[in-house]
Amino acid sequence: MKYVIPAAIAIGVGLITLLSYLVQNSQLLAIRLILTDWAVILGGLAVLVGLINLLLVHTRRIQAQARGWFYSLITSGAALMTLILGIVEGIGRDTPALYQQTSVTRLLFSGVLVTSQAALAVLVMFFLIVGAVRMLRSRADLWSVGFLAVVIITLIGWIPLQFIAPLNGFREWLIRVPASAGARGILIGVALGTIAIGIRVLTGSERPYKD
Amino acid sequence: MFNIVIPDLLGLILISIGVLAYIAFTFLAHRGLKPTLRPLRGYDMLPKQVGQAIESGGRVHVSLGANSLIGEKAGVTLAGLSILDIASHASAISDLSPVATTADAATLLVAGDFVRRAYRQKGTLERYESTAARLVALDPIALAGGATSVVADDDVRANVLIGSFGPEVALIAEAGERHGISQTIGSDRLEAQAVGYVMADQALIGEEMFVARAYLTEDSAAIGSLIALDILRWIIAGIIAVGAVLQTFGLLR
């Protein structure tokens, strides 16, 4: 029973959800919406557990004076401070602190989190270029050279200069024909993989909940 | 009462074929059918990568991305968890638990359970670290930033990044490269697949990330689903080819 009940619940819920997408029926849809609401509530509660996990990981690192423990101290302090601020600023208000125009929580979100993320996102481009150069050093085969050549042609093709107009056309063809075809093929593969794993869940052979 | 529209009917038929093929081939695999699988470099190397990390006294880092078990990316999350399961079973004989990082709280709970279960099944539960699964952040870029510090500070010797990553996966891969760690990257998104091709030792392209169990275990259900996946692929390729021919000759409007 320890295995049968969770499997039966998972398979039943999965089947109802799947059928409600494929068959247009108002009762199935209503059940699906209720199940989705439950999932969202559970997901929200899991965030609290996640916060405890984050504090636990970093507290242990601080206690053990592990490498980089000072960053753990900053992380834990920032997490606690943001939590307390969010709770205090939300008391007696209709809207959560993050959505209040003048709240410190909102200021922290836009001033610290969003800007840090933007900075990290910019670094990605540099890492990619360094990675491509490293790839040529470690794997100098035909595919690597082809990959880099296409990247360079695509980048140069964007420059709006008259004398490289043919390159611009070639870039457009590259994106429209081989890149689109390859991308669609890969995405169909991903969709099929998702279906395959979904079927395994629906038949109870993929059980993330098993003991 | 029940209203089915044509595109949905096609989906229903395809899924039904998939389910039937899966059941039939799982049964045959259970009875001893062993298909010859196309070699995938990613799965040839992954056990070696994990083994070397354990032998050198380090950890395996499995990052599951910011995708959740709730919603349309659940399949990707399950694929990542399958690989975490395999890495956890391999790591359960060593002194250090693998580290699983995620940006989704629901996935965190399941990931922790996967690692703990592997240790219990191997009879080494006393070595299990309760902080093996970690919620690093709640969004993809912050996860990438946080995971770089895990790679740098936690004796990580193998980096396995399987999830719905975008280009930000380059941040974690760069940290891995800086520390000379072998890396495998698999994502359902094209940008991360391109990053994986450039920066990782092995990249899992397209549906490859979903077939880990079929390649790395003797699980007959996984082999059945792999064959079902191939059958569905041929059916869809056939539909596309027929559609292209019909369209070319003006027979499809």
Concise synopsis of the structure shown:
Chain A is mainly α and 211 residues long. Chain A has 6 helices and no strands. Chain A is extended and about 65 Å long.
How much helical structure, as a percent, in the residues of chain B?
55-70%
What is the third-level CATH name, the topology of the largest domain in chain B? Rossmann fold
Shape of chain A: extended
Give start-end ranges of low-pLDDT stretches of chain B. none
Distance between the ends of chain A: 12 Å
- Fraction of residues in H or I helices of chain A: over 70%
Number of helical elements of chain A: 6
Shape of chain B: globular
Q: Determine the structural class of chain A based on helices, strands and strand pairing.
A: mainly alpha
Strand fraction of chain B? 5-15%
Q: Give the radius of gyration of chain A.
A: 26 Å
What's the CATH class of the largest domain in chain B, please? Alpha Beta
Beta-strand percentage range of chain A:
under 5%
Number of strands of chain A: 0
Number of domains of chain A: 2
Summarize the largest interface: chains and residue counts.
A-B, 66 and 80 residues
Q: What strand order characterises the main sheet of chain B?
A: 3-2-1-4-5-6
Mean pLDDT of chain A equals 87
Structural category of chain B:
alpha/beta
Task: Tell me what you see in this structure.
The complex is a heterodimer of chains A (211) and B (253). Chain A is mostly helical. Chain A folds into 2 domains: 1-92, no CATH class; 139-211. Chain A contains 6 helices and no strands. In chain A, helix 2 packs across helix 3 (69-90). The N and C termini of chain A lie close together (12 Å). Chain B is of the alpha/beta class and 253 residues long. Chain B has helices at residues 6-30, 41-55, 74-91, 105-122, 140-153, 169-178, 190-199, 212-216, 220-248; strands at residues 59-63, 99-102, 133-135, 156-163, 182-187, 202-204. The interface between A and B is large, with 66 and 80 residues.
